[in-house]
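Troubleshooting: if your tokenizer reports a length mismatch, compare your output against this known-good record of 651 residues.
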Amino acid sequence: MDVTGALATAPTDSIGRFRPHAKPHDGPVHRDLVHGNARELRKQSVVGTLARTASTRADSRHDGRVASDPLKSRQHGAITVSRIGFAVLVCVSVVSGYCGFSHYLHGNTTFHHNVIDKLYYDAQLFVFAAAPVANGGPFPWMLEVARFTAPAATVYALAGLFWVLVADEVRRLRIRAQNGHVIVCGETDTAKALAAALSGTSKKVIVATGSTPADASGAPVASAPLNLGGDLRTVQTLVDAGLRGAEALYACTADVSVNVAIASTAARAVAAKATRAPLNAYVLVEDPRLCLALRARRNGREESDKLRLEFFNPDELAARSVVRTMALAVPGSDRPIPQIVVHGLGTFSDALIVNLARRWRPHSGAGKLKIVVVAAQAGRGTADLSGRYPSLADSCALRPYERSLADYLTDRETARLAAPDAVFICDPDENRALNIALTTTGLWRCRPESVVVRVNRIDGLHRAFNGGTALFDSLGARMSIVGVGEVACEPMTIGEDFTELLARAVHDRYVAERVHDGETPAQNPSMLAWEDLPEDLREYNRAQAQDIGRKLAMIGGALVPSTSRPGPGPRFSFTAEEVERLSEHEHERWMAQHTAHGWTYGAQRDDAKKRHPDMVAWNELAEAAKDKDREAVSALPSLLGDAGLTIVRTS
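Known-good structure output:
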């Protein structure tokens, strides 16, 4: 068994097959819901899974809006019926009143009874002031009917007017009283895709746009999920959106400064105890380097138990999801190292390569993963990426190719080489990407389900090529369209925050070190794959990841995004004194956390009884145990470098 659990073994092809996602989970915000199906997902085909998942999500969307729920549909139907009933009531009142007055006033000399007069008396019935009936009856039966139906129509109209005046306020009060719901702020494609995905869960979804949606004619859209006319950056507007009882807040406007301001406002509300439950806030950041920089700054702050804040980039999330659902075959005597082609440069392709390298790292001893980058500036792009992620070279052999994808496939065929195991067409111009996919005939000789085309703004395009209602042939089931918005905006994907990624990296490195020392999972239960690790052991890794910022602050250090051109001088490394100081701190943190969970000292480790021989003070700790902490501290620059971050000294 591969204790790292990083890759599943495919029986024949280098690219395996997948099963669709499990049924939607009940909430988007808890970490224990994020990873439950990761091991199963690794067994399925990236192309088939993503296409089917995107198709499922798309069925719950219409014109970019959240799918209507049955309750709203019933309410809309009830309103339509009531309006028809009101119109019928008015017509009956007018007709019966006119006919009744015609019969009643026939031969009457007290009241004029020409057509205009009778219509006037008829109208007076609606305001309880018809003079001919003021003194009582008897009246003709049609007039008797009108005497009651006309005032009833008036009362109905007044009640409707009153409801129009107070309905918005009543709705706001009901929203403010909600509990356990999710708020999505913004009108971007990401916000719409996220709201659609969340609507498939059992959570209530409130979409706050900050403005009144309108159709092409300028008329307000009655079916919009929620219209908040205030500034989303103010506490009052967020409270009106139900912040007090919300479980999660997604800030997804087109302006990152507005998104950060929304999160800051939510943080102030949490600090002022204006929320009843812990709040999970997710901030959309389209610029990947800015997203990483904000994550780094957040890591340096103490995490509140009332507010969990994460920044996400759709392209990065989509690439991570694609790679995680792949099943790369472990090389063997009858199975060569997979060969992957990435066409195009950009955030998605960069994230794709980085995540492929991470997934392959446990098997890099058999050889480096071969990735060819096809782009006009491929040499410069791969050099920049390798500079920002130095660990790529440990597990990945990047080869730039600066001609067209068609030329590359022709060169392979001329050299009698097999078709690539996977081709990812990641051109930022999605129209050009689709054009390349459909006109590069060399792709037609690739394996089934091995060509992935990344699109972002062409909503629903995958349905034209994949599924039972497809309009076009997908190159004999070789090609699949993957929409960034639909894949990235899965709540489970967004819920896996930066701390979670660092925690996985911490655990994987720990497992690799223990394997190097000759330990096995049978001897050390902490060596299980992350997906199989008990939740309490995952929490230990998360706490260690959250403590990275505190450790760096102790030595006057900070995190910044790595660059392809590092500053003057050698790369960062801890001094011997810093390693010792931080190792002691790490042991004290580890022991305090275990003590809080009921662990005590024991000469032999016993997980059932929560006994551990390392539950002693630093100066009493065995040297071998101290070395584990020293290794963890010394590995921080490399671990953070794998996440695209560099440690710098601020003092």
